[in-house]
């Protein structure tokens, strides 16, 4: 039986009742057999400390970045961040199941040459250089992109892992609209992994092959805005974040 959990009905109804959140699709609509109501994961913010950077209201988490909003962990690098990471780790042995709704608020088009909205980021081994995540939902030229990386080396040397682009929108995303996302992934950097992604119930990625890094501890979920420096402000909301595993 799947370990995936769905949000409490009361929280979903509250979210759908908020007039500012148009296009609501309740995350309790597809419970699945044996599903249980549960709160989402504990999320830990990473941002520059601005008052607008991070807000949680019930089951909804909102992120916002302005030009110059740098997290201290990024030093003086030309990038900006308002993200939060889940405390728990994803499985390296079982398929993972991640669900959430995501909405980019109306605003000026993104000009950042790279921007991530969701990461399944590696837990770096001792002595390992930092690197880009094994899975990411990205935004470039206002189009959603989905990519992955892998490295079978015991200790990754840097940010040079092979990158696989699985999906690119043919048209700009609709700002102000909620997208229901589901990610299922089995990490295996040796070649026996797989990745499936659905958006609004339609499968947009079906990949089999190497994905992930040769780590001791599993990756973790991150959401928010992480981008190359850009002049325009941007805000994104997430709701109904649920993380679990699937049977083998």
UniProtKB/TrEMBL annotation:
Biased composition (Basic and acidic residues): 66-83
UniProt entry keywords in alphabetical sequence: Signal
Region Disordered, residue ranges: 66-86
Signal peptide segment: 1-22
Keyword Ubl conjugation: no
Protein name from the UniProt record: Polysaccharide lyase-like protein
Organism name: Sphingomonas ginsenosidimutans
Lineage of producing organism: Bacteria, Pseudomonadati, Pseudomonadota, Alphaproteobacteria, Sphingomonadales
């Amino acid at each position: 039986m799947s370990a995936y959990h769905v949000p409490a009905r009361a929280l979903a109804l509250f979210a759908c009742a908020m007039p500012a959140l148009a296009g609501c699709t309740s995350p309790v609509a597809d419970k699945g057999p044996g599903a249980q109501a549960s709160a989402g994961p504990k999320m830990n913010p990473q941002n520059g400390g601005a008052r607008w950077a991070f807000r949680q209201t019930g089951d909804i988490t909102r992120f916002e970045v302005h030009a110059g909003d740098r997290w201290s962990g990024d030093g003086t690098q030309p990038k900006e961040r308002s993200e939060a990471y889940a405390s728990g780790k994803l499985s390296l042995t079982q398929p993972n199941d991640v669900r959430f709704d995501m909405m980019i608020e109306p605003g000026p088009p993104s000009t950042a040459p790279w921007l991530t909205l969701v990461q399944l980021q590696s837990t770096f081994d001792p002595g390992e250089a930092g690197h880009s995540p094994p899975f990411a939902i990205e935004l470039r030229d206002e189009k959603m992109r989905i990519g992955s990386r892998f490295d079978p080396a015991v200790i990754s040397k840097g940010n040079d892992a092979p990158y696989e682009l699985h999906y690119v929108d043919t048209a700009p995303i609709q700002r102000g609209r909620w997208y229901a996302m589901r990610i299922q992934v089995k990490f295996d950097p040796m070649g026996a992994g797989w990745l499936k992604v659905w958006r609004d119930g339609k499968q947009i990625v079906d990949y089999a092959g190497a994905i992930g890094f040769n780590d001791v501890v599993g990756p973790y979920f991150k959401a928010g805005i992480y981008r190359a420096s850009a002049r325009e402000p941007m805000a994104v909301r997430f709701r109904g974040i649920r993380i679990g595993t699937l049977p083998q």
